[in-house]
Amino acid sequence: MNKFRSARLKLGALALGLASLLGMGGGEAHAQDGPVGAASTATVPIKLALIESLSGPFANTGEAVFRNLLWATERVNARGGVALPAAAGGARPLQISRYDSKGQNEEALSALRAAIDDGARVVMQGNSSATAAALIDAVNKHNERDPDKRVLFLNYSAVDPILTNEKCSFWHFRFDAHADMRMAALMEVLRGDKALKSVYLIGQDYSFGQAVLREARKQLAAQRPDVAVVGDELHPVGRVKDFAPYAVKIKNSGAQAVITGNWGNDLTLLVKAAREVGYSGSFYTFYGNAMGAPAAIGDAGIGKVVAVADWMPNVSGAPSASFYKAFRERFPRPQDDYVHLRMQLMIEALAKAMEGAGSVDAVSVARQLEGIKVSLAGRSASMRAADHQFQQALVVGVMDKQGTPGVPFDVEGSGYGFRVVRDIPAAQTEQLTSCKMQRY
Question: What are the residue boundaries of the Leucine-binding protein domain, all occurrences included (predicted)?
Answer without folding.
Answer: 45-403
